[in-house]
Write a structure and sequence with these properties.
The protein is α/β, with parallel strands linked by helices. The protein has 24 helices and twelve strands. 55% of the residues lie in helices and 10% in strands.
């Protein structure tokens, strides 16, 4: 609207004058932004900002340009028009930082309200504008009609015409009825302010729109209309991007042990069950001390956000108070999360085993405390560690709590063959490992089952029937030699599959690493099977890292992609950041660059991390500097 409303705006200014139309422009531009404060949909924003504010800005631009012609002469007019056309550059440099500060402080709605107030200043500026005696022959000598003019106006025009008649060269006055059309164009071509205006616009607009063009093309690949892409660019503070920056949905980590982060990258010399007793449980036991827990939880949350994880399904420890410390840290930086207090009442080390009654009571206290603290994007989660560590009595009571409160559930399932044998011996009355959770009421649409490597076809059918999801943790599966999950089979059977880092069984807290490991795992299965097997590609793992993970967490109505109505959880990516791991070449397509980011990228390429439109990476940096 800003660029397409020039003709009607010019007609309005010509008919009603600069002062009146300038006041009207300020009113429209301000009103459109203020009304956007109440926006509830994309069409609403298109109407208020796109149409109302857009027309107001266009009207104001024409009024200001015309005003320059009225108030300046000679070289002063030349300079003034240059500033009108392309500005001084100061505003272009300062305003993005101002908008960023306003959005972080007041949110995008508050930012629109404040900017709307600033736009309203145009009303004051044009209100004090005084009409000037205009030498209109400068723009179109002799084209003025005298019919309906006052005697004073006709007298002023005659003065201008007489003065121009006395001029030589391009200033010679030619009466309207004698001037051919070619002469009008010749006079216009000698109008230096007009020429500089055209040059400035031609130079400015491509630079102004170039970044938008790239983002529009990217969002169109995500089924976005052009206008919706533009609105996302502006309202959600994507920022001033250059080169080949792009935006992707935020990564979803569907399985991560926050309390195991101190062991990340070490202690991988034994299998899973031995690993639990030798390394993991002694480390988790240290989290009973709150100061220790606070420092370690801050480290892990910091790391996963830097790696682009906007939503995480965290497993904490059996300690309620330190689990709440984890929630407080997540809340302070603005990450989206599901957080579970771990439950286990059997087959663990004595110093890290709960009584059944205590485990249930502490779980209820944890859920109630999370509700009382009113976290923004944090939900409590029922977290029986795995069937081998929990009695049927405990799991049944946890299932009742989960179903009565419609809570998420997360646990482990069929990670290793040794574990499966252990569980079968503990629960001989159940038909399968998965059937144990089903009997306990723990299999729901909100259930996340980590690993699921050694499942039978009947177990997968039961998981699909209950609409539960699987968290694929390929790094951990390989690092502690648990096995290879056939994700392609799960997807073909319509089971939701997301990605998990599973630290510290997995040695990396990056979902990018999980994507690569998932492809390598699938390729390995393909090598071992036959040529007809269809391994995962970069598109499959990207979907698992975003929308697939959201489906596993039963959050796909809120996050996972850029569908209209969902919250803006996103990453701003610079594939060619200075000192980064990626080289981008001239013939690389958008698809090529996205692939390079998935296979080669790391936290250096992630410039901004958004949760619900807020740049939480910036929040994290601020809090880190204050610590």
């Amino acid at each position: 609207m800003l660029l397409n409303a020039g003709f009607p705006c010019g007609q309005c200014v010509n008919k009603f004058g600069v002062r009146k139309m300038g006041i009207c422009a300020g009113f429209l531009a301000s009103t459109g932004l203020i009304l956007s404060f109440f926006a509830t949909s994309i069409p609403y924003l298109i109407t208020t900002v796109g149409v109302v504010t857009g027309f107001g800005l266009s009207l104001g631009y024409v009024s200001i340009t015309t005003s320059v012609g009225e108030h300046f002469n000679g070289k002063a007019r030349f300079v003034a028009l240059s500033f009108v056309a392309s500005g001084s550059g100061c505003g272009a440099m300062a305003f993005p930082f101002l908008l960023d500060t306003l959005i972080q402080t007041y949110g995008w709605r508050g930012c629109l309200l404040i900017v709307g107030g600033l736009m309203g200043n145009m009303i004051c500026f044009f209100a004090v504008c005084q009409p000037q005696l205009v030498d209109k022959s400068y723009y179109s000598p002799g084209l003025l009609e005298t019919e309906g003019m006052s005697q004073q106006t006709q007298h002023n025009q005659q003065i201008c015409e007489n003065r121009n008649s006395a001029m030589n060269g391009s200033g010679t006055f030619i009466p309207k009825q004698q001037r051919p059309s070619i002469e009008k164009l010749r006079l216009l071509s000698r109008n230096s302010p007009f020429i500089v205006f055209i040059i400035a616009v031609c130079c400015t607009l491509p630079a102004y729109d170039s970044t938008l063009i790239y983002l529009i093309e990217f969002f169109k690949t995500k089924s976005f209309a052009n206008k919706e892409a533009l609105l996302l660019y502006f309202f959600m503070n994507v920022g001033n991007t250059t080169g080949r920056h792009f935006v992707v949905p935020g990564f979803v980590d569907t399985h991560i042990h926050a309390s195991q982060y101190p062991n990340c990258g070490k202690c991988l010399d034994v299998g899973m069950l031995s690993w639990l007793h030798k390394y993991t449980i002694p480390t988790e036991a240290k989290f009973a001390e709150l100061e220790f827990a606070r420092k370690k939880y801050w480290k892990v949350v910091t790391r996963v956000i830097k790696n682009g994880t906007t939503t995480a399904s965290y497993l904490a420890t059996i300690y309620t108070d330190s689990t709440l410390e984890l929630c407080d840290i997540i809340q302070s930086v603005g990450q989206r999360a599901i957080v579970g207090k771990v439950n286990m009442d059997q087959n663990s080390l004595d110093f890290y085993t709960e009584k059944t009654v205590t485990s249930v009571e502490e779980t209820i206290r944890y859920i109630q405390e999370v509700a009382r603290r009113k976290y923004t994007h944090i939900k409590p989660c029922i977290t029986p560690r795995f069937a081998g560590n929990c009695s049927m009595e405990l799991m049944t009571q946890l299932g009742q709590i989960a179903q009565s409160g419609k809570l998420h559930v997360q646990t482990h399932l069929a990670e290793t063959r040794e574990e499966c044998d252990m569980v079968r011996k503990l629960f001989p009355e159940n038909r399968s490992y998965t059937d144990i959770y089903n009997d306990a009421g723990l299999l729901t649409q909100k259930t996340v089952l980590a690993h699921g490597i050694h499942l039978t076809s009947e177990e997968r059918k039961l998981i699909r029937l209950r609409h539960s999801g699987i968290s694929h943790c390929p790094n951990s599966n390989i690092a502690i030699r648990s096995g290879l999950l056939d994700v392609r089979t799960c997807l073909d059977e319509n089971i939701s599959v997301g990605l998990g880092t599973d630290i510290s069984g997995g040695y990396s807290s990056s979902i990018l690493n999980a994507m690569r490991a998932a492809i390598c795992t699938s390729n390995t299965i393909a090598i071992q099977t036959n040529l007809e097997y269809r391994p995962l590609d970069y598109k499959d793992v990207f979907q698992m890292a975003t929308l697939g993970g959201a489906k596993v967490l039963d959050m796909d109505d809120v996050i996972g992609n850029f569908e209209v109505g969902k919250e803006f959880d996103a990453l701003l990516i610079d594939p060619a950041v200075d000192g980064g791991p990626i080289d981008v070449f001239e013939d690389d397509t958008i698809e090529d660059i996205v692939q390079k980011f998935i296979f080669l990228g790391d936290d250096r390429n992630i410039l901004r991390v958004f949760v619900s439109g807020n740049n939480i990476l910036e929040n994290l940096i601020k809090k880190s500097s204050e610590a």
